[in-house]
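Backbone-to-sequence.
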């Protein structure tokens, strides 16, 4: 190994990383062991101005780590001369991004990279030929670990275990078994009320309006009491239709659990795949239900068969075309004005509106209107 050239202006970055998947009982992978190894290596090979960058509890496939971001920032600022890690996997387990850093980013910023256990030194080109293959092996290890974790989680879900961190609204976690749900006496009546209103056949906006009129507090207010995270009391009754829909479609309130609602597509991507309600895998009878199964099934049927417009108006106005089966789309001219700093433009537009169809009565549809445009100075 070539000894370092003295450079008193730049630092030697000693980067350590440990993820939860590596396990905290493995002494060879612990942060303290990595620090000792890197410090002794730097001292033995004459690297000066050493500075530790430590990411404890961060996965190797995720490069959005606090210490790593600071390291990259310092490299961009020209403060780092050498970067040393225990091995290539400590830098990362995504072979594409890791390879980009080693072969493109570090050389462009004149940073020497060393991975001790893998024998990698960027100033020795003969040792760099095998580096891409080691990165691929590291990513294969991460993929294998990911598959094992997903398999273990799926097995526990199929056993009726609740694996999410936060319990759904209306439930709380059992004090004796955190993977089991019990009914929350405070919030469960709200869920019961939502299903009762839905059984009347009204829409989501109507349900939200009735909850608002009854001054039923939304779930975030209860979190405010428990976690002191939500402080906007002006909107404590402002229920969201998406959240109400989520409650009404969730089989957890019938005493059942969903195996996977939105699984990740790949290990690299954080995007989740949406699974339709009808195609989701359900485990029945895992906990005490708030809503009986027959009532839950009835609400699903009502919501599936409900017409587009039903119940109270959401904006305070009646729909003048409600009940019309034949509707004709026509164009009506409208004068609009558009201003800029230099001038203003007045022009005719033809927005599309719906009107009762007159074709069946023999009346001709409205003819197209020629656009006119006039520009004038302000």
């Amino acid at each position: 190994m070539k000894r370092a050239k003295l450079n008193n202006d730049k630092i030697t970055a000693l980067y350590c990383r440990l993820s939860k998947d590596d396990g905290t009982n493995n002494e060879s992978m612990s942060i303290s062991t990595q620090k000792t190894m890197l410090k002794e290596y730097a001292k033995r090979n004459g690297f000066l101005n050493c500075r530790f960058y430590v990411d404890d509890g961060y996965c190797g496939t995720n490069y959005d780590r606090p210490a790593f971001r600071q390291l990259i920032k310092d490299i961009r600022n020209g403060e780092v001369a050498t970067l040393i890690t225990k091995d290539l996997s400590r830098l990362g387990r995504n072979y594409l991004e890791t390879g980009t850093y080693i072969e493109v980013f570090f050389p462009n910023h004149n940073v020497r990279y060393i991975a001790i256990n893998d024998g990698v030194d960027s100033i020795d080109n003969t040792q760099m030929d095998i580096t891409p293959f080691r990165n691929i092996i590291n990513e294969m290890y991460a993929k294998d670990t990911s598959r094992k974790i997903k398999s273990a989680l799926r097995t526990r879900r199929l056993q009726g275990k609740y694996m999410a961190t936060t319990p759904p609204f209306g439930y709380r976690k059992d004090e004796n078994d955190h993977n089991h749900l019990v009914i929350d006496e405070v919030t469960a009546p709200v869920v019961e009320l939502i299903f009762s209103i839905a059984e009347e056949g009204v829409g989501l906006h109507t349900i939200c309006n009735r909850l608002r009129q009854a001054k039923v507090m939304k779930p975030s207010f209860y979190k405010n009491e428990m976690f002191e995270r939500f402080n906007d009391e002006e909107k404590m009754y402002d229920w969201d239709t998406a959240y109400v829909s989520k409650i009404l479609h969730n089989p957890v309130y019938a005493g059942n659990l969903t195996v996977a609602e939105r699984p990740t597509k790949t290990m690299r991507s954080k995007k989740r795949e949406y699974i339709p309600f009808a195609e989701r895998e359900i485990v029945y009878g895992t906990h005490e239900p708030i809503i009986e199964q027959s009532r839950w099934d009835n609400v699903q049927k009502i919501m599936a068969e409900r017409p587009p417009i039903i119940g109270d108006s959401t904006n305070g106005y009646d729909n003048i075309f409600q009940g019309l089966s034949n509707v004709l789309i026509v164009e009506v001219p409208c004068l609009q004005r558009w201003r800029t700093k230099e001038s203003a433009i007045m022009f005719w537009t033809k927005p599309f509106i719906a009107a009762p169809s007159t074709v069946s009565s023999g009346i001709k549809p409205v003819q197209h209107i020629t656009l006119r445009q006039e520009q004038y100075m302000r």
